[in-house]
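A favour, since you know our structure tokens better than I do. Would you make up a two-line entry for one protein for me to read? Write everything out right here, beneath this request.
=====
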Amino acid sequence: MKVVSVVGARPQLIKAAAVSRALRLHHTEILVHTGQHYDREMSDVFFEELDIPKPDLNLGVGSAPHGAQTGAMLAGVERALLDTVPDWVLVYGDTNSTVAAALAAAKLHIPVAHVEAGLRSFNRAMPEEINRVVTDHLADLLLCPSDTAVRNLAHEGIRDGVYCVGDVMLDALLSASTRAKSGSDVLRRFAMEERQYIVATIHRAENTDDPERLRSILRGLAASEMRVVFPVHPRTRRLLAGVADTVGGRVSFIEPLGYLDMVRLVAGARLIATDSGGLQKEAYWLGVPCITLRDETEWVETVATGWNRVVGADTSRIVDALRSHEAPPRDRPPVYGAEGAAVRCVELIEQARRPRKPSLESYGSQVVP
């Protein structure tokens, strides 16, 4: 079986690290990187640390407005699929890379498997939500991380090809956490002690593209009684110039970190403040309380168990949460399954294997409507 896997952003690289390892044991994988995150800190170092095979093709799309970026990815992925003629296209998460690959495959009648299907914020103002909905309605195999995701799809009338496999990011985290504890010196490099700092990340457009909202979040972080360490996404750094004057000395802006350093940083933190979905889950698995700097979260299970608190961008709510949110005095149930989700994904792709509909060999010479 030949599978084209499409990635383009850090969270997708983490998921692919686990799934590609399982897939390549018995099948051929062609890894296509769209170049959505393309500098070393945001991409290359993840391939090195997670032992992911280098991409067979890098489209080099880079940053651009949504329409231009998605269009360039769609054209590039379509060409790759015509050249490779795979049995399946495998996509991850909710980025522009995800929806572009799903569209390209669907138009060529190549079945699509979507890892992390069924997530919903129910906020159509988020580009990620549009990407999720479109991808799920195009996918033939929907690999969900939780029972909630399965129910979300059922409410939209999607029931065939839906499976709850657990979260493949757990496989990657378990593999990396031991190595990170012994191999990362990030706490020493930044002069930090266990449980004596907070980790913050902001990257979503809803926060970074609204100066008042970004300023409100930064004011809340600046009021922390504990040092706040903020690895800055390149896109966020460009937008900080006009609002960084609101931040006091307790916030330390640092460059993006590799995966092992980030895992070690999160594992040693007192608290996480983030708008990242992946970081909400990693905090949960590592037993670190989290506050979410959004008005909603797709990872509702982390809130229901008491480990996550959604505070939005309101300064006073952020300050209150930073000062009062502690780990709940109860266990963390396996709401996203157990280790082995990546293997389950590959097994389901194998079981669902079927012939492609039309032949693609002559597609490139056809005039399409």
Remarks:
- Residues 364-369 have pLDDT under 50 and may be disordered.
- Residues 19 and 342 are 5 Å apart (CA to CA).
